[in-house]
Amino acid sequence: MTTIRRYALTAGPFAVAAAAYAVVFSANRDRLPGRMATHFSLDGTADGYMAREAALWSGVGLIAGVAVLFVVLAAVATKNAGARVTAAVGAATAALLGCPLVATVVADAHAGVHDPAAARLPLWLLAVLLLLICAATGALIWWLANAAPRPEAAPTAPSLPLAEGEMAAWSRTVVTRALLLPAAAVTLGGLLTAVFGPWQLGLPLFVLGLACAPIAAVRVTVDRRGLTVASTLLPRPRLALPLDGIADAGSARVDAMGDFGGWGYRILPHRRGVVLRSGEALSVRTVKGREYVVTVDDATTAAALLNGLVARQAGERAPEC
């Protein structure tokens, strides 16, 4: 993907979202009250208001600010795989921001200039539309970004020889501040907002923070069962690759943004990653051709032990002549 194409696919959806909001706002300006309804409760009734001009510029400013963030991420993700993920997530985010803003203008225009409290916006309907539009927008940009060439698999590590009946295991804990600190901040912010402010805003933030926290610290284990990656905080989420499903393993160096478009559990075609930082990583290929990448120290030792366990199991299953 060229540099111009990468920036265009990343910034384009935000430009469309901002333009759509501004055009709909301008087309309905005469029908909008001087103080617009800008926040709605779960039953669709208005419970928050903002001056008309402030609503326009704050909406455009919000979209522009998030667009700058994703453009910066696109600049960092110089590799095709990471740039494609960034562009697709950015497009879905642009739809997530633009659709509610446009829907708010339409609701206010329908209510008329005299009674902004009469504006109605069923949040369940908005949620369904957002889910469909965000998914469609992200998928479209993913398709337009084109599939990057499949990355070369990491070289297979030497196999650690194991005698029959010999027990061996390897384990390391990985903690990332890049996820742990933001997750803690979002969880705390959501809790405080839910208690002292609008709970409709605080609850999603609290749930989002809790969802991100478990993946911020994981324990990677290689033993006779295969590869296990489990959160140190909660029983789930958990990644387990059984020994009989593993073809081989190796070690590689990965760039979190460039190779996977960010941190956390990442999903790419034929590739999955538990990416908590850039640097050394364990690369495991399954018998079905999929690669799993886990960023962890001493990955070469883990790969060698995993190859030794796979080889011993294959030898035990080989028919005797």
Main beta-sheet annotation: 5 strands, mixed
In CATH terms, the superfamily of the largest domain is Pleckstrin-homology domain (PH domain)/Phosphotyrosine-binding domain (PTB)
Strand portion: 15-25%
Uncertain residue ranges? none
Mean pLDDT metric: 81
User: What is the distance, rounded to the nearest whole angstrom, between the alpha carbons of the first and last residues?
Assistant: 54 Å
Over all CA atoms, what is the radius of gyration? 25 Å
Fold-level CATH name of the largest domain = PH-domain like
Count helical runs. 8
Q: What is the level-2 CATH architecture name of the largest domain?
A: Roll
Secondary structure class reads alpha+beta
Please give the share of residues in helix. 40-55%
- Number of domain units: 2
CATH hierarchy class name of the largest domain? Mainly Beta
